[in-house]
Each structure stands twice: as structure tokens, then as C-alpha cells.
């Protein structure tokens, strides 16, 4: 009986990737995943801050509406040291971390060095003011017109 011998030689007919090729692909995938993660994180932070400025503007509009509906002066309080604000009859709101808060208001509406108010009157007018939220190079100015009490949000670059 004869035994057939099969002999495998070299790489002829072998297919696949080398270890080096696999490592290069893994490194490229890691870099791409890192870039995507960073951009998603920045996008989420920006959306969170934009939402906070919209919520603050809504609280100011709510305060104005309460003054008109109840026929009496209503006040939104801002604490720049604690990064909080409070509309009448509502719970105190804490701004997201990493966000700076500044208030420009009438002198008589300053409670102390870090707390102030924006008041609204029954006719819809207000004491006016500006609340600035900032994060990194971006700023959101919530402007309150004294004559009409209207509230507007303006987004800018810091220093511009």
C-alpha cells in the first residue's frame, strides 16, 4: 500500500491579513472613534447650555406673565455665586456645571454682591437688565427691555 504524501509549502494559496495590517486598522478605528466622541461631547455640551439659556428666558417670560395676570409686581432672583435663579412660585434652578453667570440690573435690584433681581410690573414693563451665561468662548445674553419687558436671547462669541 502506498501512502500519498501531501506537502504544504510556504504561503502559496494562503490568504489573510498580516499582524501589522490588523494593527494599523485598529489604530485608525481608535482615532476615528476618539474624534467622533469628542465632537459628540462638544455638541451635547452646547445643546445643554443652549437649553439652559432658553429655560432662563422662559422663566423671565413666566415672571412677566405672572405680574400681568396677578396685577402685581413679580421678581426673578439670580444668584451669580451659586449659579441659580428662581421665578416666583417655582423651585430654584441650578445651571449646568462649567457655566459662568453674570447679572446686570438696576442698582436698587441688587440684594448683595452676588444676588440681584429683575422685576416685572403689572403693565408688562420691567426694571430691565441682562443676564449673561458663558461657557468657554461662547456667551448667551438674555436681554430684558425695561419699557416693554420683552425677553430676547442673543448668542455671541466671548469678547465679541
UniProtKB/TrEMBL annotation:
Membrane topology: Single-pass membrane protein
Main location: membrane
GO CC field: plasma membrane; type II protein secretion system complex
Pfam families attached to this UniProt entry: GspH, N_methyl
GO biological process: protein secretion by the type II secretion system
Taxonomy, superkingdom: Bacteria
Location of the General secretion pathway GspH domain: 53-147
Official protein name in the record: Type II secretion system protein H
Amino acid at each position: 500500500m502506498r501512502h500519498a504524501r501531501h506537502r504544504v509549502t510556504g504561503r502559496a494559496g494562503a490568504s489573510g491579513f498580516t499582524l501589522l495590517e490588523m494593527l494599523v486598522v485598529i489604530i485608525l478605528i481608535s482615532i476615528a472613534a476618539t474624534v467622533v466622541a469628542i465632537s459628540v461631547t462638544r455638541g451635547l455640551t452646547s445643546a445643554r447650555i443652549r437649553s439652559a439659556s432658553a429655560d432662563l428666558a422662559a422663566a423671565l417670560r413666566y415672571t412677566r406673565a405672572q405680574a400681568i395676570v396677578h396685577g402685581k409686581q413679580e421678581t426673578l432672583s439670580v444668584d451669580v455665586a451659586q449659579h441659580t435663579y428662581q421665578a416666583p412660585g417655582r423651585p430654584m434652578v441650578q445651571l449646568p456645571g462649567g457655566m459662568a453667570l453674570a447679572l446686570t440690573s438696576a442698582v436698587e435690584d441688587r440684594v448683595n454682591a452676588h444676588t440681584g433681581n429683575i422685576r416685572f410690573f403689572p403693565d408688562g414693563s420691567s426694571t430691565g437688565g441682562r443676564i449673561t451665561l458663558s461657557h468657554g468662548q461662547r456667551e448667551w445674553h438674555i436681554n430684558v427691555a425695561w419699557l416693554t419687558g420683552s425677553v430676547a436671547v442673543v448668542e455671541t462669541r466671548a469678547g465679541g
